[in-house]
Amino acid sequence: DIQMTQSPSTLSASVGDRVTITCRANYSLNSYLAWYQQKPGKAPKLLIYKASKLESGVPSRFSGSGSGTEFTLTISSLHPDDSATYHCHQYSSYSTFGQGTKVEIK
Amino acid sequence: QITLKESGPTLVKPTQTLTLTCTVSGFSLSSSGVGVGWIRQPPGKALEWLALIYWDDDKRYSPSLKSRLSITKDTSENQVVLTMTNMDPVDTATYYCAYRGVKAYPYWGQGTLVTVSS
């Protein structure tokens, strides 16, 4: 099984800050890594697929990078609307989600 | 416009079998490359992938839950059905179905909360 380790579990940042979330896998994912944003009571929303491809309609302040076993989601300038939980998802072999990162606005 | 909607019981008793239906629109379950997956999320916890069925009826299951899960599709009815046997209170969660394409899961249903309690 592919295990995903996502960090941090929570982070608090100010509007305008650069925010980085990391996911590590125990096997190479060949870039089959996605990121989702989830707000309370709502289904996850796809932000990034294939490690770095921005889903249509997603603001350009969101970006993804990485390859192999280590991946990063970056929000270049945090907006108030970005308060949410972010999940990484490997779809290289079956599927596995990370534990989630809750982003709070200071 | 692709949409998915989950339906099924909101409350099941321990040891019972859960049957959930995902009704889809905006795409065909027989279109090449298309899949529909099920993912769940216990209250306040992480997402957990459960199962996936492809257009060609290829099926994949979470290794840890494989013995309890079954996924099928009815192309004519535009429905995907997930069954989970021997339900336990730890299976209390919101269950989502989602469209699987080359972009992982770009479309999700609204989710349905299933509570397991006697």
Q: Could you please describe the fold and organization of this structure?
A:
- The complex is a heterodimer of chains A (106) and B (118).
- Chain A has 106 residues and is an all-beta fold.
- Chain A is 0% helix and 51% strand.
- Chain A contains no helices and 11 strands.
- In chain A, β5 and β6 form a beta hairpin.
- The mean pLDDT of chain A is 97.
- With 118 residues, chain B is mainly beta.
- Helices cover 0% and strands 53% of the residues of chain B.
- The termini of chain B are far apart.
- Classes of the chains: A mainly beta (106), B mainly beta (118).
- At the A-B interface, β5 and β10 of A face β5 and β10 of B.
Interface with most residues? A-B, 22 and 22 residues
Would you count the extended β strands of chain A for me? 11
**Helical coverage of chain A, percent range:** under 10%
Subunit arrangement of the protein: heterodimer
- Please summarize the sheet with the most strands of chain B: 7 strands, mixed
The tally of helices of chain A reads: 0
Q: Mind telling me the C-alpha Rg of chain B?
A: 13 Å
Content of β-strand of chain B: over 45%
Unreliable spans of chain A: none
The sequence of SSEs of chain B as H and E is: EEEEEEEEEEE
The separation of the N and C termini of chain B measures: 40 Å
Measured on Cα atoms, how large is the radius of gyration of chain A?
13 Å
Broad structural category of chain A: mainly beta
Mean pLDDT of chain A: 97
Order of helices and strands of chain A: EEEEEEEEEEE
Structural class of chain B: mainly beta
Shape of chain B: globular
